[in-house]
Automatic annotation (TrEMBL), chain A:
<comment type="function">
    <text>Subunits I and II form the functional core of the enzyme complex. Electrons originating in cytochrome c are transferred via heme a and Cu(A) to the binuclear center formed by heme a3 and Cu(B).</text>
</comment>
<keyword id="KW-0679">Respiratory chain</keyword>
<keyword id="KW-0472">Membrane</keyword>
<dbReference type="GO" id="GO:0004129">
    <property type="term" value="F:cytochrome-c oxidase activity"/>
</dbReference>
<dbReference type="InterPro" id="IPR045187">
    <property type="entry name" value="CcO_II"/>
</dbReference>
<dbReference type="InterPro" id="IPR036909">
    <property type="entry name" value="Cyt_c-like_dom_sf"/>
</dbReference>
<dbReference type="GO" id="GO:0005507">
    <property type="term" value="F:copper ion binding"/>
</dbReference>
<dbReference type="InterPro" id="IPR002429">
    <property type="entry name" value="CcO_II-like_C"/>
</dbReference>
<feature type="domain" description="Cytochrome oxidase subunit II copper A binding">
    <location>
        <begin position="120"/>
        <end position="236"/>
    </location>
</feature>
UniProtKB/TrEMBL annotation, chain B:
<feature type="transmembrane region" description="Helical">
    <location>
        <begin position="379"/>
        <end position="401"/>
    </location>
</feature>
<dbReference type="GO" id="GO:0022904">
    <property type="term" value="P:respiratory electron transport chain"/>
</dbReference>
<feature type="transmembrane region" description="Helical">
    <location>
        <begin position="494"/>
        <end position="515"/>
    </location>
</feature>
<feature type="transmembrane region" description="Helical">
    <location>
        <begin position="787"/>
        <end position="810"/>
    </location>
</feature>
<feature type="transmembrane region" description="Helical">
    <location>
        <begin position="680"/>
        <end position="704"/>
    </location>
</feature>
<feature type="transmembrane region" description="Helical">
    <location>
        <begin position="342"/>
        <end position="367"/>
    </location>
</feature>
<dbReference type="Pfam" id="PF00115">
    <property type="entry name" value="COX1"/>
</dbReference>
<dbReference type="InterPro" id="IPR013833">
    <property type="entry name" value="Cyt_c_oxidase_su3_a-hlx"/>
</dbReference>
<feature type="region of interest" description="Disordered">
    <location>
        <begin position="1"/>
        <end position="20"/>
    </location>
</feature>
């Protein structure tokens, strides 16, 4: 599944441009794909990436100094140094150098420490880590009830969004590298993180705390949108499911309800009101299926329903043995839930 | 003071020896007869009885080889992990199998390799470095080894039955507590068993460094390795108990559903994280410091000059030890702690760079000031430096909370930790193997194979782990069994996998070089590296006695600075050149100045340690499968074995009070109280025990501060009347024990026996009252009753052990093992009761006062 092709060096955060050599390094290293902490699209991620590049340069210099000195004394000039000089090596290298470097680094590093509890500009997103998917609720300012969805997080660019995190059974960790650092999600305890995305695009988030068999397949798409587009999208997301119109999709809805899918899944506007599994009201418009497992195509939907366990070990949803016709109808219905 | 009170003699005769005394030659026929008796006394058993040996040279060797085998197995697991990750969406192993593999890889490397390897090497080397014949408690080392072997085979063997733990080596609840199958129990009980053996070894190593040094070797001239042993031993003593306390709570939750980590019933998974990392971070330095210690032995030899900045290094090692206990929160930066904590622990984590840097720069200064001779061990040390400094520098990055927010739980961490552990442990240990191999095998390893192994491991390591920094920054989390293509991770992972196999090839060469038959090879000359420390005084070909006579040491590098010492040692011209009664004896010296104070008998070959280890193993292993009756039976049998072992071979009244140890010096043969090694061992053990208890109390207050419903509305509290009664019982049993000791000392044997007979009754009464006070509480309902129950059980179990000890002393008094003159046992038992009484009274206070204060 590809959320985004490799975003190469072409796109840079302007903050990086202040440092010519840093840009060169980035060009050499490449900045990775849609899940890279160096391919930044948010304020927190950008300042951390800058911190990293500066620390990297410092580390390379220090490494060369220490190992160069070692190579010099052991291979090139194994001579004698008097005690006074030996003492200055010990004190200079062991005390003065680290004290100066670390004090400076701490002062700067802690000054850019992102405050996870910093209030947002209004939108609150509540995310709950489930086994192994993400329950997502949008609480726009003043909302009484949330707009519920799953496995995809959309955010307005240029605004700070507050995340309130929890978990159902075990500890997970919420992480969108392109936007900022991670925050663990606990059962029975609420944690927070606030992120300020700046560059629209599609990024990938993934659970970072080991959470069991399918830890590897607990991902999601993080879509940063221009604010107006986001508002439109949120309004559409709040609406009930679009009733199916064509024959196949209507039959698919029948299959959906008769197979008991509604016991676990909600499709708003129908009898399906289960809350055990992800909300499917707008599954057809999502970028990924099965919490980042694959893209939402008819074929992938069919494979998912019939081979759930193989795609996602120990997943709670059973694999269904449906007739080919029923399966085709069902996938048609789901794909149509835009 | 105690020596005089007991009426036991004090050392008599001239000390320190004069030059004239040392110049006196030993008649050849006397020396020959002495050498024969000494050889006979220390000879390890042969044939099938070989395995009953307790000599540190034998036990240390088995210990090292066993740890090596576990390391290789864990390494094979790493290769399977790398193969699985070589390409995206690979299905070589299932997710479940992968999770078992990485859990076991980490657990085995930490608990079955890194820590035991330090203890194994130290058991093997320390007596040599100190010119001692053996460790102070040889049977304890053997017991520790057999426990380690049984526990290690049990834990690592589970992977072959698809039943291995699979929740990560950190076992975070609720994932690990809710996990089905025996995996988590195998981890908890199997590793707790090994941890207890580790603590036993640490106690012995500490006592060995403090009390078994050669005469004259003041603390400020002892080899740096011994300093590191002290520091690391101390760290083990304070770091492992919090984990054992955590394991205790965890297993109570697993077995009996007591909700310590279950948030629905007031528990908190964060408590485990704190306890685990209070252990887990010092653990990193427990692994790292011994390797620095090896470097501290190799560097002066290579530089052909004394180490530069000896006291700087000692202070830094101690400083590192202290600081390492204040850093654990940096493993929890992303758990939503307040910014003030993040800032504090970031700064503390950076601060540890300073003592580490001092140690490295002291070595560098030594090399600069000396004339370096590049040897194979030094090549491995330089590899270690190159790799470790890199791990250290990424550590500086990670200590900054903001960067850790991104890098935490990614492959960047995997790279970082392997750089620190390979550079800070594996490379120095291999350097140590090449350096010390001639010491324990009297042969050299191959220079050519050694260089091949070095370059393969060095190149392969960097090929494997350098790209992982980038893999992590590009977003790959740890512990995922596979990954989709298209995120830029594919090529990097493939390179890492190739590198892992290059490392494996290097290890194959190294291990072959280590174990290949060397029969055709000549023995080494004595002291092949021209080193300055005592281990190189050992005879070639090897003699079982270690040193022919124990020298008087006045310098840090006696072989360089005390010419003629070697000859006098060989001639039997120093201390303990004889074993007149054919018994194994070691010299005990004072803690600071190393003045000879006692000659101590140590125990010889035995099967009792095997039985004791086997039954102790049963007591830990059967509960894994919830087979409690055989577990209890094993526990009882283990206690019986240990009592038999102690009764027959420790603190027996000697046939003579004082004996000649050479150079006209006469030393007492028996010591009680602070003069004896046993008392020190008890003190040190109880410090560890008190740390575990403190961790439980920490748990209580953690719930109190962190959770709003502790205790919950309308909770039933412990019955305060019974708690008061319990406190009286504990105070009484303590008073009776201490009183018994005093009465016994003043010849009031009958009264002392009466005290010792009543003391266990009071202990039992106190424990029963305490259990009775929590009896109405339902521990599975909420964490509040559960934690009260856990404290009560902890105290009651200690009372049980203490009661057995009191009865042991009573029996000793009745059967002539414990007399007014020879009363070491009761000194140790009253020391035990000092600690337990404090714990018991604190528990009473917490249980009794909590309802009013909360």
């Amino acid at each position: 599944m590809k959320v985004q092709k490799n975003g190469r060096v072409a796109r840079f955060r302007p903050v990086g441009r202040q440092f010519g050599f840093v840009v060169l390094l980035m060009a050499l290293a490449g900045c990775g794909g849609g899940q890279s902490a160096l391919n930044t699209a948010g304020r927190e991620a950008a300042s951390i990436a800058l911190l990293f590049w500066v620390m990297l340069c410092g580390a390379v210099v220090l490494w060369l100094l220490v190992n160069g000195a070692f190579y010099y004394v052991s291979r090139i000039a194994p001579g004698r140094l008097d005690t006074r000089h030996a003492r200055s090596v010990l004190i200079g290298g062991g005390i003065v150098l680290p004290v100066v470097v670390l004090t400076a680094l701490l002062a700067w590093g802690l000054s850019i420490l992102p405050d996870p509890r910093r209030p947002g500009d209004g939108l609150v997103v509540r995310v709950t880590g489930e086994q192994w998917w993400w329950r997502v609720e949008y609480w726009p300012e003043g909302a009484e009830t949330p707009i519920v969805t799953a496995n995809e997080i959309r955010l307005p660019a240029g605004q700070r969004t507050e995340f309130r995190l929890a978990a159902d059974e075990v500890i997970h960790s919420f992480w969108i590298p392109a936007l900022g650092g991670k925050m663990d999600m606990f059962p029975g305890r609420e944690t927070m993180i606030s992120l300020a995305p700046e560059r629209p695009g599609v990024y990938r988030g993934q659970c970072a705390e080991f959470c069991g068999a399918s830890h590897a397949w607990m991902a999601f798409a993080a879509v940063v949108m221009p604010p107006e587009a986001f508002d439109d999208w949120l309004a559409a997301e709040a609406a009930d499911a679009v009733p199916p119109t064509d024959e196949a999709a209507l039959r698919g809805q029948e299959v959906f309800l008769s197979e008991g899918c509604g016991a676990c899944h909600t499709v708003r506007g129908t009898e399906a009101v289960g809350t055990v599994g992800p909300d499917l009201t707008h599954i057809g418009s999502r970028r990924t299926l099965g919490a980042g497992r694959s893209t939402v195509t008819l074929e992938n939907l069919g494979t998912w329903i019939t081979h759930t366990e193989a795609l996602k070990p120990e997943v709670r949803m059973p694999s269904y043995a449906l007739s080919e016709g029923d399966l085709a109808d069902l996938t048609q219905y789901l794909k149509g839930l835009k | 003071m105690t020596v005089r009170e007991t009426g036991l003699p004090r050392p008599e005769g001239p000390y320190p020896p004069t030059e004239a005394m040392l110049a006196e030659p030993v008649p050849e026929d006397v020396a020959k007869a002495q050498a024969e008796r000494l050889r006979a006394a220390w000879a390890p058993p042969t044939g099938w009885r070989y395995w009953t040996a307790v000599n540190n040279t034998k036990v240390g060797k088995w210990y090292c080889l066993t740890a090596l085998v576990f390391m290789l197995l864990a390494g094979v697991m790493a290769l399977i992990i790398r193969l699985q990750l070589a390409v995206p969406e690979n299905d070589l192993v299932s997710a479940d199998r992968f999770n078992q593999l990485f859990t076991m890889h980490g657990s085995a490397m930490m608990f079955l390799f890194a820590v035991p390897m330090f203890e194994a090497i130290s058991i093997l080397l320390l007596p040599g470095l100190l010119g001692a014949r053996d460790m102070p408690f040889p049977r304890l080392s053997a017991f520790g080894y057999w426990c380690f072997l049984i526990g290690g085979v049990f834990v690592i063997g589970s992977i072959f039955f698809d039943a291995a733990p699979r929740a990560g080596w950190f076992m975070y609840p609720p994932l690990a507590t809710k996990d089905d199958g025996p995996g988590s129990d195998i981890w908890l009980l199997g590793l707790s068993f090994i941890e207890i053996a580790s603590i036993a070894a640490a106690v012995e190593l500490i006592v060995g460094s403090l009390k078994c040094r050669p005469p004259g070797m003041r603390v400020n001239i002892m080899p740096l390795y011994a300093w590191y042993v002290l520091v690391v031993g101390g760290m083990i003593l304070f770091a492992f108990p919090p984990l054992i306390a955590g394991d205790f709570l965890f297993e109570l939750e697993r077995s009996f559903d007591w909700p310590f980590f279950d948030p629905e019933r007031g528990g908190d998974p964060m408590l485990w994280q704190h306890l685990f990392w209070i252990f887990g971070h010092p653990e990193v330095y427990i692994v790292f410091l011994p390797s620095i210690a090896i470097a501290a032995m190799i560097v002066p030899t290579v530089a052909r000059r004394p180490i530069f900045g000896y006291s700087w290094i000692v202070l830094s090692a101690v400083g590192t030890g202290f600081l390492s206990f204040g850093l654990w929160v940096h493993h929890m930066f992303t758990t939503g702690l307040p910014s003030i904590s993040l800032g504090f622990f970031s700064a503390a984590s950076e601060a540890v760079v300073i003592p580490t840097g001092i140690q490295i720069f002291a070595f560098l200064a030594t090399l600069m000031a000396g004339r370096v001779k590049m040897t194979l061990p030094m090549l491995w040390i330089s590899g270690a430096l190159a790799i470790f400094t890199m791990g250290g520098l990424t550590g500086v990055m990670l200590a900054l909370a903001p960067f850790d927010f991104q890098a935490h739980d990614t492959y960047f961490i995997v790279a970082h930790l392997h750089y620190t552990l390979f550079g800070g442990m594996v490379f120095p240990v291999i350097a140590g193997v090449y350096y010390f191999y001639p010491f324990f095998r009297k042969k050299l390893m191959s220079e050519r194979l050694g260089r091949w192994a070095f370059w393969l491991i060095f190149t392969g390591f960097n090929l494997c782990f350098l790209p992982m920094h980038l893999t992590g920054l590009w977003g790959m989390p740890r512990r995922i069994y596979t990954y989709p293509t298209g995120l830029g991770w594919d090529g990097l992972n493939l390179i890492s996998t190739l590198g892992a196999f290059v490392v494996a090839a290097g290890f194959a060469i190294f291990v072959w070089d280590l174990i290949r038959p060397k029969g055709g090879q000549p023995q080494i000359p004595r002291n092949p590296w021209d080193a300055g420390t005592l281990e190189w005084t050992h005879d070639v070909p090897e003699e079982v006695w270690g040193v022919r006579s124990i020298p008087h040491v006045t310098t840090r590098y006696p072989l360089w600075d005390q010419p003629g010492m070697q000859g006098r040692m060989d001639a039997g011209g120093f201390y303990l050149p004889d074993a007149r009664e054919g018994k194994r004896e070691i010299l005990i010296t004072s803690v600071i100045d190393a003045e000879p104070v006692q000659v101590q008998r140590v125990s010889g070959p035995t099967w009792i340690t095997h039985l004791a280890a086997g039954f102790t193993g049963g007591a830990f292993i059967f509960p894994t499968f919830h087979w409690y009756p055989p577990a209890i039976a094993c526990g009882v049998l283990a206690i019986c074995c240990i009592i038999w072992w102690l009764w027959t071979s420790t603190a027996r009244p000697p046939e003579t009070d004082i004996k000649d140890v050479g150079l006209d010096l006469k030393l007492p043969t028996y010591a009680a109280g602070p003069a004896s090694t046993g008392w020190w061992a008890m003190w040190i053990t109880m410090l560890g025990d008190a740390t575990a208890f403190a961790s439980l109390i920490f748990g209580f207050f953690f719930y109190w501060t962190a959770s709003p419903d502790f205790p919950p509305e309308g909770a039933v509290h412990a019955a305060s009347g019974l708690i008061g009664l319990a406190a009286v019982g504990f105070a009484a049993t303590w008073a009776l024990t201490v009183g018994g000791r005093r009465l016994n000392r003043v010849q009031a044997v009958g009264a002392a026996r009466a005290c010792l007979a009543f003391a266990p009754l009071m202990a039992a009464g106190g424990a029963s009252a305490l259990i009775g006070s929590v009896w109405p509480l339902e521990p599975s309902a909420h964490v509040y009753p559960a934690v009260l129950w856990a404290l009560a059980i902890w105290v009651a179990a200690h009372c049980g052990v203490g009661g057995i000890m009191q009865l042991y002393c009573l029996a000793g008094s009745l059967f002539g093992k414990l007399t007014p003159r020879y009363d070491a046992d009761i000194w140790n038992v009253s020391l035990y009761w000092h600690f337990v009484t404090i714990a018991a009274l604190v528990t009473c206070a917490v249980l009794g006062l909590a309802p009013g204060a909360l």
